[in-house]
Design goal:
- The chain is α+β, with helices and mostly antiparallel strands.
- The chain contains ten helices and twelve strands.
- It has helices at about 5-40, 40-50, 90-100, 110-120, 130-140, 160-170, 175-180, 195-200, 205, 245-260, and strands at about 50-55, 65, 70-75, 80-85, 125-130, 150, 155-160, 170-175, 190-195, 210-215, 225, 240.
- A hairpin with a 5-residue loop joins strand 2 and strand 3.
- It is elongated.
């Protein structure tokens, strides 16, 4: 029985195999060249976007002053505690772990989950605090809290409290209803907006412009380190607002109601002797 693999047939098949291997390596080489040279900038940008997570820096609201320049509404130092999570079950597990280091009543789990569902790619707000002891405690146990982000966030302080509340109003995080109704042009999820009084009427002036900072994260969303401030955008404070309110006079009138007429409600009108 003679073999069909004669010398010339073996040579022909070897030549075909060589050309096939050459074509495969040429295709691979072209693909590598395109990925590493032609599309290098695009892939580098995508890699950076996967590695760096942009976090919004809230802008300090403009201060509200009385007619003499005294502070009615000012900004005081505060912190926000946020979490980065890729999935809802991961978020719930982190919230459960977080309760071991903060007061039990400071976290509304369902409210946090709802906020996360509205913007899953952002660090969700868990709670705000001006208590540095809580911030220090969380920093000490950061290794046990993957995805934890703590950032400085100014908080609103009203010098006369309820004495000017009916005039100045208050601020709160913008709701989904507010965003759907376009009540606050330019506002996005997580912004603090005015809800009543002067804070509401002049919200577009007081709100300011938020900044951005970047946090390096792992493939699972765990925060590794913050990037230098220069790589982000600094927030811009809102416009200060001077009113015609006389703060000492307002405080005096408020004290009259509190001490002399605690069970009464009303208003005081002061007129000049000339009428």
């Amino acid at each position: 029985m003679t073999s069909t693999f004669t010398s010339w047939e073996v040579g022909r098949r070897a030549t075909m195999a060589q050309w096939l291997l050459l074509a495969v390596f040429a295709t691979l080489g072209a693909t590598f060249f395109k990925a590493q040279v032609v599309d290098r900038d695009r892939f580098a940008l995508e890699s950076s976007n996967n590695r760096l997570r942009a976090l919004k820096l809230p802008a300090p609201r403009g201060e509200i002053l009385d007619r003499n320049g005294l502070l009615i509404a000012a900004n005081v130092p505060g912190h926000s505690v946020r979490l980065l999570a890729a999935r809802e079950d991961t978020l719930r597990a982190m919230l459960q772990r977080l309760t071991a280091y903060v007061p039990a009543d400071s976290i509304d789990v369902e409210a946090v989950v709802k906020r996360w569902q509205l913007a899953r790619h952002e660090a969700v707000l868990v709670f705000g605090s001006s208590d540095l002891s809580i911030v220090y405690r969380l920093e000490e146990h950061r290794g046990a809290l993957p995805g934890l982000v703590i950032q400085k966030e100014p908080r609103r302080d009203y010098s006369l409290g309820a004495g000017v509340g009916h005039v100045v109003g208050y601020v709160a995080q913008v709701s989904r209803t507010d965003l759907d109704s376009a009540r606050y042009p330019g506002a996005v999820q997580g912004d603090l907006v005015g809800k009543l009084g002067i804070e509401l009427e002049y919200d577009s002036l007081l709100r300011g412009r938020p900044g951005i900072r970047y946090v390096e994260v792992t493939s699972r969303g765990r925060a590794v380190r913050e990037q230098p401030i220069s790589s982000g955008v600094r927030p811009m404070q809102g416009t200060d607002l001077r009113t015609t309110i006389d703060l000492p006079l307002q405080a005096f009138v408020d004290s009259m109601w509190r001490h002399d007429m605690p069970d009464m409600r009303g208003a005081l009108v002061a007129m000049t002797p000339a009428g």
